[in-house]
Amino acid sequence: MGRQWHLWGVTVLLLATAATAADVPRFVSPRKFWGQLVYQVKPLKPEKVVALTFDDGPWGSSTRQVLQILKEEDVKATFFVLGKHALMYPDVIVDIVKAGHAVGNHSWSHPYKAVAAEVAKQEIENTSALIAKQSQAQTRLFRPPGGNLTTGLVDYAKSKNYAIIMWSVDTHDTRPNTTAADIVERTLREVKAGSIILLHDGGGDRTTTRKALPTLIRRLRQKGYRFVTVPELLHLAVKAPTPQPSLSPVPLPTPESLPSPESVPTP
Prior knowledge:
alpha/beta; six-stranded parallel beta sheet; globular
């Protein structure tokens, strides 16, 4: 009897552990994309799908307004976040994940120039660790700042089986003279099935991006496009479910490894 109760207890513990693990959001690519540069995806089935992606957040009310627009339009997107901004807005990261959007790593401080290998490691690991601490989400998606492949960050990300997510449609929404109409028309000219569309929710005044977003979504829908997250898009390019990366628990950042919020400029 004692042995039976012991076995029952172990079974319950294992089931509870599995359930807990299943509840952890995992933004991971199929194996074929590990360490690969991804600009666009070709779905196996002819289907007009696109992925909206947002960089440089979270950015206070700007990101919250983008989330509200996406909610109203019933669209899921992917947010590539900066660690130094996530540090200031932990509740926004939680809201992104709870709303069903995907989260990717965009480095800690957005370096444009080459950095030492140890710095590259810190830029990526501290950001992923903070995302995990704030939302429990595990991500193996990385987008290099400015699309720069020579800073050392991409090399490190590849070594850790991140998929390097680039883009095939640049909306140019950060350019000073770009209008909302420019963003919409440029996207419609360049979009194809499997496109990854670059937008920004942070890094500056994104009023123009937010103004363009509802129209952009509706115009794409009129053309028959469906919106998916980057992980969903990647999985549409493989024949069957593929093994997920063996994700060792992301080490949580220590007080010594992360700057204080006061040391980071407020958006």
